[in-house]
Amino acid sequence: MKKWFSDEHNAKYGKDNRYTTHNTFHYRSLSLDKALPIKAFVISVVIFFLSIPSIGFLSVGGLQFNLTSFSSLQFISNLIITLTVIWLYDLVTARRKFLTQELYGSIFASIILTMTTYIVIQYTFIALVRDILVLFVFLYAAFWICNRRKIKAVLQFFGVLFVLVVLVKFLYTAQGENGLFTIFQTANNTFQTLNPTINDTWVHSFMATVNAYRSNLSNYNQSIRSLIANSNLSLHESPILDNLSKSRFIEMTSDGHYQITHYGAGGGSYGEVVFYPSGYSPEAYAQNVRTTAPLHWQLLVSPQFGYYGYYVGQGPVVEAEGSCNAPSELPGPNINVTQWFEGYGCTPIVVNSTWLVIDLT
Asked: Which residue among 19, 37, 66, 332 has its CA within the 20 to 30 Å range from the CA of 281?
């Protein structure tokens, strides 16, 4: 048989290896892998739908590109979830694992989700195509880079180093502020995203909890009991107030108005509360409002109101990143929330969250 290669080469790769699948795979791995675009597209679609606020597995927000953002709970949660998604894809479709692709794919995806200001998950066709395309480009770039055999070892080293630095920074910050309790608390907050979707059923159950409280006269002081003893204290839903709540939601979430509490609210005989109940069951959230937002709770159970309307929607919300010493309740309308948090030395961030607007009369 004619020797196509040297004995040393044949010993390493096998005789006549230009006809073997081993040789074909070895050299093809340095060029375009046709499976990568499919993998990037499928994972991009999955990540997009996990980012929809009504599902709530992944959080989208405009954090800054720095170590503090990398070590935030928001980024780390996204990193773990996207890493799991890519690993499951490889587990189902591949004969072997691509650990470097999984690592860098999750890093790139988490960066684009948490550190861009223009991705706010919306339900329009243009926004859907745009966001999936952005995720696809970043994921494909990560997978393609990791497919370069000559730099894979270097990428593995720096990828693992990046994750270790982020985790050390996260644990150090948590322990420095409130000890191990902070770590358990942040873990609990992560799992809260698995709680029920905020929809009509959720709101009606929440209002049933409110009405149960209102119907118990022992919850009111003696001077009020004599006035309401024979009254029907339950709040009843009003279609007119439902429309008002929808209008108020649109007004408060457009043109940057979300930074001002109850923007555009007028005076008169109606009251309004705005909640962000993602991650809670109806009963748990009612208890949370009662203990952490007493002014809002007093408005909900006030005997002067007999009707309510509501609207649930997705919109931008100003929150404080990490630990913050600001009070848990904003005490009134027309407060600039960004300045409010900054006044307490906190770092305000904008996230996409669920709004529940309730108007009372």
From this structure: 332
CB 116 within 8 A of CB 62: yes
Which of residues 114 and 37 earns the better pLDDT score? 37
Q: Tokens 């923007």 label which residue? A: 263
Q: Where is the domain boundary, 160, 193, 226?
A: 193
C-alpha distances out from residue 121 to 32, 46, 52, 126, 355, Å? 31, 13, 6, 11, 14
Please state, in angstroms and rounded to a whole number, the distance separating the CA atoms of residues 338 and 347. 9
**Sign of the torsion angle spanned by Cα atoms 34, 36, 42, 45:** negative
CA–chain centroid gap for 73, Å, is: 10
How many CB atoms sit inside 10 A of residue 66's CB?
9
CA angle 34, 36, 42 (to 5 degrees): 120
What's the gap between Cα 118 and its chain centre? 15
Note the pLDDT tens digit of each residue in 2-34.
444 455 545 544 544 443 444 444 434 434 567
Q: For the segment 213-260, what is each residue's pLDDT rounded down to a tens digit? A: 887 766 666 656 555 555 667 899 999 999 999 999 999 998 889 999
Are residues 211 and 160 both part of a single domain? no
Assign 3-state DSSP to the chain and report helix, strand, coil percentages, each to 5. Answer: 60, 10, 30
> What SS3 state is found at 355?
strand
How far is Cα 210 from Cα 208, in angstroms, rounded to an integer? 5
Neighbour count for residue 28 (Cβ, 10 Å): 12
Domain boundary among 193, 219, 244: 193
Structure tokens at 226: 């004599």
C-alpha–C-alpha distance, residues 88 and 97, integer Å: 10
pTM comes to 0.49
17 lies in some domain: no
* 261 SS3 class: coil
- In the predicted structure, residue 56 carries a pLDDT above the cut 70: no
Ramachandran angles phi, psi of 85, nearest 5°: -60, -45
Query: Which two three-digit tokens encode residue 50?
Result: 């996990």
In three-state secondary structure terms, 55 is coil
CA proximity to 298, closest of 221, 357, 208, 204: 221
